[in-house]
Design brief:
Length: 110
């Protein structure tokens, strides 16, 4: 397990890269993609919490084991990346398929 200083450094770098990517100018010839989808973010955050609580782990326990800002994800302050979900799955020894099992995402009507 890595220490709190390393966790803080990794979180700082992740936030810095996210802010940097937000500053990139969009290509106006392409349709703009929505940065976050509230329904999807809610579903993914809820699943994260369900798995953590099923194992009776605290947010702090998961933070120390993964360096993931679990509290921010569960409160939907930050959106999970696929890499973060994969790290969470490794921590709980589950597959991505198991993580996403049961999450239904509404289809958009045309």
């Amino acid at each position: 397990c890595i220490g709190m200083v390393q966790c803080a450094a990794l979180n700082f770098i992740e936030n810095y890269l996210r802010e940097l990517s937000d500053k990139i100018k969009p290509d106006f010839n392409k349709p703009e993609l929505q940065q976050t989808d509230p329904i999807l973010v809610e579903s993914i955050a809820k699943r994260l919490q369900e798995i953590r609580e099923r194992h009776k782990h605290t947010k702090e326990f998961v933070l120390h084991g993964t360096c993931l800002a679990i509290s921010d994800y569960e409160r939907k302050v930050k959106s999970l990346t696929l890499a973060s979900i994969a790290k969470f799955c490794l921590f709980y020894n589950i597959s991505l398929d198991e993580y996403f099992h049961g999450i239904t995402y509404p289809k958009q009507t045309k």
